[in-house]
Each structure stands twice: as C-alpha cells, then as structure tokens.
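Problem 12. The chain below contains 112 residues. Write out its predicted structure in token notation.
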Amino acid sequence: IFHGVKTLTSDLREMSEVSSSFLLSKKGIGAALVPLMPQQGSATTQVDNLWIKLVDSMRLEVDQQGQMSDAAALKILNRLNTEMEAADQLRQLLHRLGSPFVQKLVYEMAKA
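Solution.
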C-alpha cells in the first residue's frame, strides 16, 4: 500500500495539487469523499473526525526536513485501519462504498 501511495506522491509535485489538499482543513473532506445518500447520518462528520486524527498522526511522524520514513507511513496506515474498524458507522460506510472510498482517502493523504 505504501509504495502505491509513494507513487501517487511522485505525481503530486505540482503546488496546486498540494495546496488543494485538505491538510489544513478541519471539515470538508467528509463532504468531498462521501456521496449524498439516504440515511447518511453523520458519516461526513465521522470522516472529518477520522481525517483530523490522520493529519495529527502525519504531523507527528514527519521529520524536520518534511520527509517520512516507510515505517512512519506504515504507522499512519495502521492508524487509518484501526480507526476505520473502531467506528461502526465508518465500517458500514466502507462496506457500502468499497475500495473507491479508501482510494480517495489514501489519495488525499498522499496530497497532504
């Protein structure tokens, strides 16, 4: 997974891609990644909260030169997995939306 993310980041060298990331956002990624659907409930809020936790993890793992090791990236991906499994609503959302949802989320992580 990490090498796939690494490949994505090599394609994101343009400043417009990085500046359009949700890195500095507290809200909005849920609305961008979760399509409107009936009985959506607070799924967008759950995704926003998940994103805040992931960004915090990313900030902790990035070194002073702004680089991240493979081990640090693996910690972040493990955190993503743990958070997705811990919340019932996120698990249901993942089941409903499948791999495109995860791909979009990992892509946003790579942009950030």
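Discussion. The chain has a mean pLDDT of 76. Students who got a different answer should revisit the alignment rule from Section 12.3.
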